[in-house]
Model the fold of this input.
Amino acid sequence: MTQLHSETYYDAIIVGSGTCGATLARELAKQQKKVLILEKGATVPLKETLPGIAPLLNEVKVTEKLKDMRAITTGGTTAFYFGVAATPPLETFSSLGMDLSKAYKEVQNELPINYLPDEYFGPQSLKLRESALDLGHDWEKQPMLVDLDKCTSGYSYEAKWKAKSFVEEAVENGATLLEKVEVTNVIFENNKAVGVAYKEKKKSNIHKVYGEKIILAAGILASPVILQKSGMKNVGNHGFYVDPNRVYFGLIPKLGSTNNFVGAMETKLEDDIFLGDANVPKLFYQLLMISMLKFRHLFSFSKSIGIGVKVHDPMSGSVSEDGQYRKKISEDVLAKLDKGGKEAIKILQNAGAKHIVKSPVNVTSTGGLLKINEHVNSNLETQFKNLYVCDRSVLPDTFRKPPTLTLVCMAKYLSDKLWA
Done:
């Protein structure tokens, strides 16, 4: 460290305060490390209302026609995620030289991981399960990051775990949170990361801050772009996936639908085709119906029942030098989506649904841009010493389930490796 750097020097600079960034900050602050968190958004009260959610949403184009969505706020996209807690693929990580078993045991004791009792589901979800089982599908519950003690009457937005809570804990233990700043690139000296450059929102001046360890945890839609701007040449050289999805909604008179934990039950139709509960809370249902211009359905939430279709698409596409994601969805993938849609309609009709409508094709999640043991090593360090990546960018592309639990485990793993 030079004297020039001393006033702004940190043990760890973490770019992004989403699931990985929040977990890393929490763990390192507990270790008495001097931690700086750089967050593009701001800390705001999290409420599942249109005024509460809309300002946080940000879309990034990832194919010719489709966009992926993220939340720009402290705690990242857990501000509006479903809360599904898919089990981490421990064997996959082990084969890559990463043992997440210790972290997973810790997480199981620290986070509210639960299978929801039937009484926590709306009538529409129970009706959907009844119909799917009747047609021979294994309609199974998924573990959820939901604190059941906060569910006084079924669905509760506040009951879903948010990464923001880990950020708050980190700050209480001495971490510094700098909000409304956008990191432009990593600073290097002798091929070693020594800091980052950033600019404040609505300002053009570039600031620099220095640290011993630099961790990119800005998410799949930001970290790879920062890496490219910082000089890494092979970002996205294997392509990426987006797992397109479509949602079908029908109406059943006198169903009595209520706000509901979406995504908490699903089945596999084929190896690459999945069906799941898509009974979203009323706010998101109404926003979706407005976007689809389905006004009969807009005012019929109490009659609504929904099912989603998701397809795994192959790795393809690239990230251009100017940070643009480029990919085309193949006709084969769209055909699989239609095949899943036919079965989804059967399940809705078997449940008694009429007036079935379908959404446009959407992106489930983007992933697969960086590979462990190629773009980063088993300690998540890049080709540049002291520069790490810890977010969805480095998840194995064979793991396409909701990643929150795995990301927490991966961040805990890295927190133990940084100064090992």
Remarks:
- The first strand starts at residue 9 and ends at 15.
- The two ends are 20 Å apart (CA to CA).
- Residues 1-6 have pLDDT under 50 and may be disordered.
- The longest helix spans residues 331-350.
